[in-house]
Amino acid sequence: MSEILIELHARDAANNRHRAWRVVVGPDLFGLWTAQVKFGRIGAAGRTMRHEFNCEAAAIAFVRRGLRRRATAVRRLGVPYRPVEASSRADHLLALTGLR
């Protein structure tokens, strides 16, 4: 079982918008699935949150919700999020939300 890694950036220099969103999902040593999400302005410390799930399906559902939210960035922020880094397991999730 490999972890899922996705990093997205939304950049618009003209409007001073520089946003980043990164999620890493994988099992821990005790069998729980964890998702570590880091977000904020590119170049700043940002904010990090950690979520725990009982199964892989719940963790992936969490990631899909986050990706759906990032897909609406054009309407909300005026600039789209684009993938900067993604693991091979993340390609399918990015394609489902239209971010790839």
Explain what the structure shows.
- The protein has helices at residues 56-71, 73-77, 91-97, and strands at 4-12, 17-27, 33-41, 47-53, 82-86.
- By secondary structure, the protein is of the alpha+beta class.
- The protein has a five-stranded antiparallel β-sheet with strand order 4-3-2-1-5.
- The protein starts with a strand and ends with a helix.
- The model has no long low-confidence stretch (mean pLDDT 94).
Tally of alpha and pi helices:
3
Counted beta strands: 5
Any idea what the CATH architecture is? Single Sheet
Query: Helix/strand/pairing class, anyone?
Result: alpha+beta
Largest sheet: 5 strands, antiparallel
Which range does the strand content fall in? 35-45%
Approximately how much helix is present in the residues? 25-40%
Number of domain units: 1
The end-to-end distance, rounded to whole angstroms, is 23 Å
Gyration radius, in Å: 14 Å
Strand order of the largest sheet: 4-3-2-1-5
Layout: helices, strands, pairs:
Layout: E1 4-12, E2 17-27, E3 33-41, E4 47-53, H1 56-71, H2 73-77, E5 82-86, H3 91-97
Antiparallel strand pairs: 1-2, 1-5, 2-3, 3-4
What descriptors fit this protein?
5-stranded antiparallel sheet; q64v53_bacfr protein fold; 41% strand; 3 helices; alpha+beta; globular; 100 residues
